[in-house]
Amino acid sequence: MGEMQSDIASLEKLCAQFAGSQSEDMHIVLQEQIENMRQRILLCQTMAETQSTDILSQIKHS
Questions:
Q1: What is the pLDDT of residues 14-24, one digit of tens each?
Q2: Per-domain residue ranges for the chain?
Q3: Which of the two residues, 23 and 37, has the higher pLDDT score?
Q4: What is the rounded CA–CA span in Å between residue 1 and residue 5?
Q5: pTM over 0.90
Q6: DSSP string, the chain
Q7: Residue 19: which residues within 8 A CB-CB, separation 6 or more?
């Protein structure tokens, strides 16, 4: 997880460099990629929480 978040930080720095420049399109593309990565992190966290809850309930029932 930490790896993805450091990737996001790197992308955000890159994104800031393009903001307001002639490469505005690149800025928009990078913002979309950052948002997609954030969504994937949220999805992974949700799945991990769900799985740990499932595992705990299986242990309790066995």
A1: 878 877 777 77
A2: 2-61
A3: 37
A4: 6
A5: no
A6: -HHHHHHHHHHHHHHHHHTTSTTHHHHHHHHHHHHHHHHHHHHHHHHHHHHHHHHHHHHHH-
A7: 27
